[in-house]
Amino acid sequence: MLKRIILSILFVTSFNSFAQRPLDPNFAFQKERLGLKQFKKGDYKGAFSNLSELAAWGFKDSQYAVAFMFLKGQHVKQSTLIGMSWLALAAESERKDWVNQFDSFYSATTEQEQLKLDKMIKNYKSKFGMKAQRVTCSKTQKPGSLRYVIDCIKGDYYVHKYEIDLIEPEL
Questions:
Q1: DSSP string of 34-99?
Q2: Rounded mean pLDDT of 107-126?
Q3: With bands split at pLDDT 50, 70 and 90, how would you rate the model's confidence at 33?
Q4: Tens digit of pLDDT for each residue in 37-79?
Q5: DSSP state, residue 142
Q6: Considering the domain boundaries, does residue 112 fall inside one?
């Protein structure tokens, strides 16, 4: 009987860890603003704590900051593979500067590195990308300005949580 109860608890616990859960949009935006401030001030530990979960949920500014934390080894082990994968996800927003950065970095890699990147990016997009996390981005022009702004919105605040890689996986 005790064995059956323990197995039931383990099943429910493991099911809940993969279940979708609601995300409060106000909490998410506040957490992202705080994390981006920490990132700009050089508090990479605090920034990673706040931004990594949001990056996993498809928030593009968070993905961009996390990308550079991995690329530069700021609070995390330096990893070009992981950093470039996050940068590819951020570039899904079609922000010109992010797309240009990714393209520039990608073209500087070897063919073998590109094969690894392509595989990793495909994996990341299936979990953290715009389609997987139900994120849409649109380009709008501010009234009275010639400048365009990219706004990304998470359409569904029920999220499937995936853990992010802290070390490079074997590919």
A1: HHHHHHHHT-HHHHHHHHHHHHHTT-HHHHHHHHHHHHHTSSS---HHHHHHHHHHHHTT--HHHH
A2: 96
A3: very high
A4: 999 999 999 999 999 999 999 999 999 999 999 999 999 999 9
A5: -
A6: yes
Q: List Cβ neighbours of 68 (8 Å cut-off, separation of 6 or more).
A: 74, 83, 87
For residue 1, is it within any domain?
no
- β-pair type (20-22, 158-160): antiparallel
User: Which residues, in sequence order, are bridge partners of residue 159?
Assistant: 21
DSSP SS3 for 117: helix
Question: What distance in Å separates the CA atoms of residue 125 and residue 89, rounded to the nearest whole number?
Answer: 7
Tokens of 137: 């981005």
Per the structure, the complete domain to which residue 51 belongs is given by 23-160
Place of tokens 């550079």: 68
* Residue 102 identity (one-letter amino acid): F
Q: How many domains does the chain have?
A: 1
Q: Is 146 helix (H, G, I), strand (E, B) or coil?
A: coil
Model pTM? Answer: 0.80
Distance, CA of 128 to CA of 63 (rounded, Å): 9
